[in-house]
């Protein structure tokens, strides 16, 4: 695979890079996107499931749906794109800022990850905020109750109408602003405020590389747009990196 000379020069001199990732990279592991033609939202109405009021109206239905999603995610495996991102840590200071909740970056070996929309493998009590990991309720087919206070336990994900975790967003934005290259991978970058991350990187002078199967709203901001899947393109970039850093 041939890459632009300018990009290779940026890659050679880079010290800090950020990967801003979205549902597209997870789709390569068999996890449906929300907005694609086979997306989850085409089968279920999001307003019935992914908001706090829906959970309070019918906690068992929402919990059952998230258990179904957990089952899909547990069976999925990180793909070549996830592993390539982790491999970049051999050469550079790497930060992953992800909109995904599937934990696949961590399972692939990435170590510095900011999760803007939470993590489906965690849960917490809505009353006392006690944290629980998913395996504790692996077989629960109804919304469990907190062992400490008896409150309802919900998935630790950001629902519609909720704020992003501010510490994760702030640290992710800071990493993007300090990056030499910001890779925007598998995302349409239309969900705000998460999509401000690559915009902040651009405004701070980072070199923006978009990797996606089709042009997106982010394409006009990108310094370099590469059409294709993360699993196809990122391993090739790692190969270039190993050659450049020899």
* Helix coverage percent: 25-40%
Count of separate structural domains: 2
Give the overall shape, derived from the CA principal axes.
elongated
The N- to C-terminal Cα distance equals 19 Å
- CATH class of the largest domain equals Alpha Beta
Q: Estimate the mean pLDDT confidence.
A: 92
Largest sheet: 6 strands, parallel
Count every helix, treating DSSP H or I runs of 4 or more residues as helices. 10
CATH homologous superfamily grouping of the largest domain: TPP-binding domain
Number of strands: 9
Low-confidence stretches: none
Strand order of the largest sheet: 3-2-1-7-8-9
Sheet/helix structural class: alpha/beta
Cα Rg: 19 Å
What name does CATH use for the topology of the largest domain? Rossmann fold
- Can you write the helix and strand succession as a string? HEHHHHHEHEEEEHEHEEH
Strand content is: 15-25%
């Amino acid at each position: 695979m041939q890459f632009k000379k300018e990009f290779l020069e940026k890659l050679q001199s880079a010290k800090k890079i950020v990967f801003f990732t979205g549902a597209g990279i997870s789709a390569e592991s068999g996890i449906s996107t929300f907005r694609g033609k086979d997306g989850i939202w085409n089968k279920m109405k999001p307003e019935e499931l992914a908001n706090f009021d829906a959970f309070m109206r019918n906690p068992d239905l929402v919990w059952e749906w998230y258990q179904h999603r957990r089952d899909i995610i547990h069976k999925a495996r990180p793909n070549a794109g996830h592993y390539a991102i982790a491999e970049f840590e051999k050469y550079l200071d790497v930060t992953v800022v992800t909109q995904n909740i599937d934990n696949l970056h961590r399972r692939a070996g990435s170590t510095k990850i900011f999760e803007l929309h939470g993590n489906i493998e965690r849960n917490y009590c809505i009353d006392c905020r006690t944290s629980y990991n998913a395996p504790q309720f692996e077989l629960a087919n109804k919304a469990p109750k907190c062992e400490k206070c008896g409150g309802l336990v919900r998935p630790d994900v950001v629902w519609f109408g909720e704020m992003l975790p501010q510490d994760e967003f702030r640290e992710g934005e800071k990493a993007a602003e300090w990056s030499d290259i910001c890779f925007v991978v598998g995302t349409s970058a239309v969900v705000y405020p998460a999509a401000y991350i690559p915009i902040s990187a651009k405004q701070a002078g980072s070199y923006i590389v978009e990797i996606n199967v089709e042009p997106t709203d982010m394409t006009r901001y990108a310094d370099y747009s590469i059409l294709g899947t993360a699993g196809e393109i990122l391993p090739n970039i790692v190969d270039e990196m190993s050659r450049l850093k020899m």
